[in-house]
Amino acid sequence: MSHQNYSYVLKQAVYHALYQQTRSELIEAISLAQRLGGSIVPFLGPTRCGKSRMLEDLRDTIGKPTTEYQGWVYDSDFVIGSIPNKPNDKMLVRSMLASLELSGKRGSSASEIEAQLYKEITSKGIRVIAMDECNHCAERGERLSKRGVTDHFKRLVDNTGVTLVLCGLPKFQRILDENEQCRDRAMKSTYMLPYSWSVEEEKTNFAGAIATPLNSLQEAGLEFDFDPHDIVVRLYGVSGGRVGIVMRVLHGAIAYIENDVLSYASLAKAANSVLQAQHRPDFFFESDDIEELDLVRSFVNVMKEADLELAPSTTEEFSVLEHY
Fold it and tell me: Is pLDDT larger for residue 220 or for residue 189?
């Protein structure tokens, strides 16, 4: 089979345990928000945990075709957009309008675009707007005040009754915490987290998540020359428990396949090629002395870089956290 075909196999969604659990929580939150007449649903987590894929999954699962409007049927009442880096008022509103595949008239003010957005949501029967990269509103150097950000989100929900899913890095939680009006319109935040190596069940579920794409590749005719148990440890080390990072390494390894065999060397080469040095691919794919502390450190690093609280539950976690 060609490299292209193997790559296609890896593009299929991996419905692992943590993904399924988070998916159920998010669907429940969106459903309840709709029964309340619209609300803000924060969906947060570290990078490469599968948040963006989740939004596409939910659009395909719970999105419904909208009613006909002036002879045209809108694709879905669940739309997805993305907030640009360092947005100002106009950029933020325009990005939400762009989720409906529309753009404001040239020269229009932010308030005029906002009015157009409300009208289009109502006329097209849009029920859910999911905006990715909401953390851009909380980054240093943003051209919109935190109060300005939340005012836009608050008015959108109040004026249309839409459910607004705000997806991004956990730093966005600060904006919710600091603004009572936005906070009081928000459901409890749903988090997509990495697997913890310190929790036996999660360790097992991570191995199961890795087994899914590997089994699919085997069914497609690919052979392996590595110990699956050993590779799970090494992939956990470079990913810190994030399935998205694992999939990135597997996609990279496809380029190095020879004679329909996925080798340990190809995985090691891919990890060193597609990951930054902070992931320590050289250590995790070259060392035979990987310890529990190394794996716990990978998980803790992901959590701390994402600005997420972590109460140590093992001596290893406590030891790692002492150095932060």
Answer: 189
